[in-house]
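Attaching the record inline, Q. Sequence:
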Amino acid sequence: MDITPITHVPVVAGPAYIEHIQQLPSKFTATLQADPDNRVNHAAVAVFAGGEKVGYLPPEIARHYFEPLKQAAAEVPGRHAPISAQENTGVDLLLDLTGVPCEP
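Structure, as predicted:
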């Protein structure tokens, strides 16, 4: 069973990442990498951009991408979320996961 690619995936980022996020251009390339040593989520997928970690995929989405990303990291397009999304949800970055292998 295939999962429809998700084109507006929010990045879960805490205060530790805000400085790096603010330095990113409006559009950028992000690298997704499985993080099996994560203490909170054993199926975590870390998001890197501009040479720095900027957050994680939300757990409910990461679980579909974790195993394929253990084999190889993936590069995806990213962009800053609109100001309204930042104010209403706290989401700063959005990623397009089209073309990234996933599991149901």
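The longest strand covers residues 27-35. The beta strands are 9-10, 27-35, 44-49, 52-56, 74-80, 93-95.

More tomorrow.
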